Amino acid sequence: ANNTIxxxxxxxxxxxxxxxxxxxxxxxxxxxxxxxxxxxxxxPYGAQxxxxxxxxxxxxxxxxxxxxxPILLLIFASISLAVEFPKLSFxxxxxxxxxxx
Length: 101
Fold this sequence. Notes:
This protein is 77% helix and 0% strand. By secondary structure, the chain is mainly alpha-helical. It is elongated and about 50 Å long.
């Protein structure tokens, strides 16, 4: 639920930045989803952590060292941005569609 709120809040700003730099809206949506999921999965008061500590009966801070999935997701999402994978460009696809018409 918090990921959705983050995406709705940051979406218009991301859309403006995407238009300015010619980024594909699908890639922008993916970036917002990836990074909101990473951070939501790591904050000690997030729904995922509170559920896990409630079941395990430990402190929310004590669980942080076991958060492999959100940390790996953050690392690989950052690498993906650095190497520009996948190579999607809104301008290129718009040009292809206009030529096909």
